[in-house]
UniProtKB/TrEMBL annotation:
GO cellular component: plasma membrane
Intracellular or extracellular location(s): Cell inner membrane
Main localization, broad class: membrane
Record lineage: Bacteria, Pseudomonadati, Pseudomonadota, Gammaproteobacteria, Chromatiales
Keywords: Cell cycle, Cell division, Cell inner membrane, Cell membrane, Cell shape, Membrane, Transmembrane, Transmembrane helix
Protein topology in the membrane: Single-pass membrane protein
Residue ranges with Polar residues bias: 123-141
Domain of life: Bacteria
InterPro entries referenced in this protein's UniProt entry, alphabetically: ZapG-like
Name of the molecule in the record: Z-ring associated protein G
GO terms under biological process: cell division; regulation of cell shape
Similarity annotation: Belongs to the ZapG family.
Positions of the UniProt region annotated as Disordered: 120-148
Transmembrane segments: 6-25
Length: 148
C-alpha cells in the first residue's frame, strides 16, 4: 500500500510540476515577446527621428537656396531699374519714336482723317425693323398648304 500512495503522490507531484512549469514558461515567453516588441518600437522611433532630422536638414538647405535666389532676383531688379528707369533721357521733352519721321507724320494725318470720318452722322429717319417683310420658314409653308 505504501507503494500505491508513493505512486499517486509522485504522479500528482509530476502533474502539478508540469502545470507550474508550463505557467512560468508562458510568462517567460510573453516577457520575451514584449521585449522584442519594445526593441522593434525603439528601432522604429530611432528611424523616425533620423527621417525627421534628414527632412529638416533638406528643408533648411532649400530655404537657404530660396533666400539666395530671392536676393539675386532683388539685386537683378534693382540693377535693371537703374539701367531702364532711372537713367536720364537724352532729350527729356522728345517722344520715343521707333518709326522714321515721315511715317510718323503720315500716321498722325491718317488718325486725323479717321477722326473726321467719325464725326459724320447719318440721316436715317426710319429705325431698322426687327423682322423681315416677307414670310419665311414654317410660316411660309403653312401659307402654301392653306392655299391648296
Amino acid at each position: 500500500m505504501d507503494f500505491v500512495v508513493i505512486a499517486i503522490a509522485t504522479s500528482i507531484g509530476l502533474i502539478l510540476g508540469a502545470i507550474i512549469s508550463r505557467y512560468f514558461t508562458l510568462r517567460q515567453f510573453n516577457h520575451d515577446k514584449l521585449q522584442q516588441e519594445l526593441q522593434l518600437s525603439k528601432s522604429q522611433l530611432h528611424q523616425y527621428r533620423q527621417d525627421v532630422s534628414s527632412h529638416l536638414e533638406t528643408t533648411n538647405q532649400l530655404m537657404m537656396q530660396l533666400q539666395d535666389n530671392y536676393g539675386r532676383i532683388a539685386r537683378h531688379i534693382a540693377d535693371s531699374k537703374m539701367q531702364l528707369v532711372e537713367q536720364p533721357a537724352d532729350k527729356p521733352d522728345s517722344e520715343l519714336n521707333y518709326l522714321s519721321g515721315d511715317i510718323a507724320s503720315h500716321i498722325r494725318q491718317s488718325l486725323d482723317q479717321i477722326d473726321e470720318k467719325r464725326r459724320v452722322y447719318s440721316d436715317t429717319v426710319q429705325q431698322p425693323r426687327d423682322y423681315s417683310g416677307q414670310s419665311s420658314g414654317l410660316i411660309k409653308q403653312k401659307a402654301v398648304e392653306q392655299t391648296k
